[in-house]
Amino acid sequence: MLKHPFLKENFFPDLMWFIGQFDVYDREETRGAMLVIYNPDDEHDRRELIRKYGLDLECLSYRHRYVLLSFLKEKLNDPTFDFQSLFDIEEDCAGSWPRGEWYSLKSPKGFFKDVYMLAKEKWKEDLQEAALEDPSSW
Q1: Which structural domain, as residue segments, surrounds residue 111?
Q2: What is the DSSP string of the chain?
Q3: Is residue 4 assigned to a domain?
Q4: Is residue 138 a part of any domain in this protein?
Q5: Domains: count for the chain
Q6: pTM for the full model?
Q7: Is 9 among the domain residues?
Q8: What would the pLDDT profile of 66-114 be if each residue is shown by its tens digit?
């Protein structure tokens, strides 16, 4: 089984890998100041956010990226999956988004569709390399 990049545990794909970089809790003056200028509901801004920050996952190997993107594809094909819930922050949770729009995106699924499309472009070589292997051997 594929191992987590930081822990000695199995890796289980989670869509938070794609949006965790946008959490600005306790970094409002640094990360928050960089991100607040982007509107996640604006197509151009959203794609810029994803390219610059959402896919900045250098800690993940080509295998992790393959598994993560396969998981995202599965969720995009699931009509019952609640993408908005990924952006919900519980009251007792230490987390915050850079702009109010993050709490109720016009199209949270559209956000992840863009993630999928842009990741396929950016990670093309990694995905091809992983596709040549047998995931059961990881």
Answers
A1: 16-133
A2: -PBPSSSSSB----THHHHGGG--TT-IIIIIHHHTT--TTSHHHHHHHIIIIIT--TTS-HHHHHHHHHHHHHHHT-TT--SGGGG---TTS----SSGGGGG-S-HHHHHHHHHHHHHHHTHHHHHHHHTS-GGG-
A3: no
A4: no
A5: 1
A6: 0.91
A7: no
A8: 999 999 999 999 999 999 999 987 766 767 787 777 888 999 999 999 9
